[in-house]
From TrEMBL:
Gene designation: SLC6A2
MF terms in GO: dopamine:sodium symporter activity; metal ion binding; norepinephrine:sodium symporter activity
Chief location: membrane
UniProt GO cellular component terms: axon; neuronal cell body membrane; presynaptic membrane
Organism listed in the record: Liparis tanakae
Official protein name in the record: Transporter
Amino acid sequence: MNIQVAPEHKLSSVAPLKECNAEKREVELILVKDQNGVQYTSSSIIPSPGHLVGPPGCTDEERETWGKKIDFLLSVIGFAVDLANVWRFPYLCYKNGGGAFLIPYILFLVIAGMPLFYMELALGQYNREGAATIWKICPIFKGVGYTVIIIALYVGFYYNVIIAWSLYYLFSSMSTELPWLHCNNPWNSPNCTDPKLLNGSVIGNGTAYAKYKITPAAEYYERGVLHLHQSRGINDLGLPRWELTLCLVIVVFILYFSLWKGVKSSGKVVYITATMPYVVLFVLLIRGITLPGSMDGIRAYLHIDFKRLKNLEVWIDAATQIFYSLGAGFGVLIAFASYNKFDNNCYRGENNEPHDTKEKKRKRNLRDRAGLVFIIYPEAISTLPGSTFWAIVFFIMLLTLGIDSSMGGMEAVITGLSDDFKFLKRNRKVFTFATAFGTFLIALCCITNGGIYVLTLLDKYAAGTSILFAVLIEAIGVSWFYGVDRFSEDIERMMGFKPGLYWRLCWKFVSPAFLLFIVIASAVKSTGLKYDDYVFPNWANIVGWGVAMSSMMFVPGYAIYKFCSVKGTFKQVSECVCVCVC
């Protein structure tokens, strides 16, 4: 018996669907009539309930995406090239042997920095989830997601303060004469001395402000801005300074209105905040290399001291700086990439190695990087013709760098938690305000008379050993439990090609081994806190390690919770582990 299908109901094959929320459908054939021995049928397409096809992470709710690819690229660049590249990298480079420091730095960049940078972008884009819920790929590791979220939150506490300082300096620069030019100000001490009288310029002979803290720029920073002379130590903080409080309020409001609507709003802000620093740095570079003796300064800065490579601290500093330079480990790259379209090529053009070639000369005992940015730089700027203009330009650059950094960290917190707790996503504006306001309250401790001591504590412990530990567990979870082969197949599904052998070897062997060594070394070599000549009390170091452990404990804590939530025999617990391993 012949079966004839009406022409208007012919079936055709279709290409695999890539869009989220596309329903998996079935074809239903219905016999409509039987005439003269010939059966006619009608076909209809019906949905198969509960089945969706598309990339993992697709849900009934459509996920927000970047307006344009350039929004994502600028956001990543803006976060990666941040304040750490201005106040941390130059200081570490000169302290640790100048050009010799670049040897471990570039080595670690190749074997760990870039592979982990690529890994986080691919993880976020494929799964389209924040730092916590992305671990649906291996639920027992979800604790590391909470760890990086907490670290990003802690860093935001004191990064916002540095931005507030930049804003304060910006306002102070809007005058006919810069306030750190001379010693005739109310905040100056009787010992204030012109730097030219201190055996030459403080910058010209490489003498650090840590040795001569009586220059106008040094006294403006510590006495005029911080009022550090009114505090005896971390146990004598005092009240928040009202001028810095107002600057901090402005910073928090800028962050809130940049993030409250998600990547649609933050993606537009970065057009200014991510590009302006490059314009300013280029202008300052041209101005700097035209100054007399600039080449001598660059040679002194990059002088190679190979003896420093024998010091383990140099290698630890280089490893830690990698994560500050690229932004891996803070959950920010995962959050940014999760708003990409599924087939976006996140591999292309993601080499964000920072450029920090500026003529700066510093003493190696300069311990606080804030002194570099808010003392040495302003003093250098004050020697230039048109110093008021250059000061305004420089602190606008610092402001935009800081805003980029803080926006990225806060987005990691908001995305990571709102993906895990859907009621937060439905109330994003309220949650964003609560997060911004919470960071404001904690940051108030850092703008008191002794606030620099709190900032120093957070700078050392909030994202030191803890960030290395988090990235180590992240690398192990993806490479050994989820599997490099499966991860490579995910990337192939997105971009049409598998990662090369270099990436897969680094993910599985080189990067985890490197991170394990650095985590152990950083914990063993850890010393007590100091700020210049002030030695922190023992209880402050205990509090600092408490801060570090409070984020790291989420890794074993959540793993224990997952084990305990499995009720039944040991066999069932073993099966739960095998789900992740296999």
